[in-house]
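Tutorial, part two.
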Amino acid sequence: MAVGLSAANFADKVLNHMLRAVASTAPAGNFIKLHVGDPGSTGTANPSSVTARPAATFAASSSGSCSLTGTLPSWPSWAGTNGEVVTHISVWDASTAGTFLYSAALTASKTVNTGDSLTLNTLTFGLTPLAA
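Running the prediction step on this input gives:
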């Protein structure tokens, strides 16, 4: 399974909203879950030992993309498995339980040890191609 949009929970809703005028409700928020491998099609595979899902806030879209803004999602003072290698994230609409929206691989994996702090510095979501 490659990372990407949840077909049922995200992609189909956006397409039906935009192309078929089917109303949909925006997620209440975006919350980041860490993974030690590909999260899979349901966003639940290979979870990190840390279960906290900090909120992610995005700036207004411009030129077909939006990026993180404000307080960046972070996991201060790592209390999970020592030496855990974080490789992926999944994004959910709630801080616990909720609905899986999409997943992504980190640009570089990160080994986290007890007491370390981990911050997601960048996350950009874009729609392409754009008409020029």
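The CA atoms of residues 92 and 99 lie 5 Å apart. In part three we will examine how such features are distributed along the chain.
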